[in-house]
Amino acid sequence: MKNRKTKILFCGVLVLIGLFFAGTPVNAAASSTGPVTVSATVPSSLELVVSIADGLTNATVPSMNFGELIPDTGDYRAKTFFIVQLRISAGGSPHELTQNGTLLTRNGGGDTIPDGSYIVKPSYNDSVNGGDPQPSGSQMGLIGSAVGNRLLYRDPIGKNRTITANYTLSGDSNTGATQTIPLSQKAGPYAGNIQFTLTTT
Questions:
Q1: pTM
Q2: What integer pLDDT is reported at residue 25 of this predicted model?
């Protein structure tokens, strides 16, 4: 019975196809062109503007150069720190702000400055934001090593705000340091980089 139903259906299809071709003029013609490319761009609602200031002079600087370290009570410390302002334009999109820092590595060698002495402290300051308070439900990242990937700020509402991040290089526990830079640290210039990223969530 199943085979019969299949056969009837197949015959019906052939009949329909035959009718279609029977009703079509033999000399029918068609012309087409394409495809035509169609495109559009949705503008990003996210924008991140970074500015850096020397914490001692308050002068705007292009990068964080801690300069020559100075010995202090048995270890090395930088004589300055840096204030990084991260201005977020979110356009109402929930977002998070992160930083990803590399180790400070000696030029021409594999020596590195202890990551526990290289600290970032994210904070929210009303005064920097025109008196506007931290948005309800938003979350500040925790103080810790600037080496590696670290959350600085998260906002589920998507308000436009400026986040402050202080960067220090010392063994001072008051800055959040968990390691010191020993006086036995090999001499030479050390360098690394930090990438700031703003993404929707």
A1: 0.79
A2: 54
Phi and psi torsions of 71, nearest 5°: -70, 140
On the question of a cis peptide bond just before residue 122, with omega within 30 degrees of 0, the verdict is no
For the chain, the average pLDDT equals 87
Say how many domains are in the chain: 1
Residue ranges in the chain modelled with pLDDT below 70: 1-27, 42
Give pLDDT, residue 26. 57
Q: Hey, is 87 helix, strand or coil?
A: strand
Please report, for the domain that includes residue 167, its CATH number.
2.60.120
Residue type, 152: L
- Give the whole-angstrom CA distance, residue 189 versus residue 170: 16
Whole-angstrom Cα distance, residue 76 to residue 174? 15
Contact yes or no for 112/105 (Cβ under 8 A): yes
Q: Is residue 24 part of a domain?
A: no
Residues linked to residue 195 through DSSP beta bridges, in sequence order: 100
**Residue 94 resides in a domain:** yes
DSSP states of 118-130: EEEEEE--GGGGT
Domain range for 151:
51-62+69-200
pLDDT digits (tens, 9 = 90+) for 8-44: 333 333 333 333 334 455 567 888 887 898 988 767 7
In a domain, 13, yes or no: no
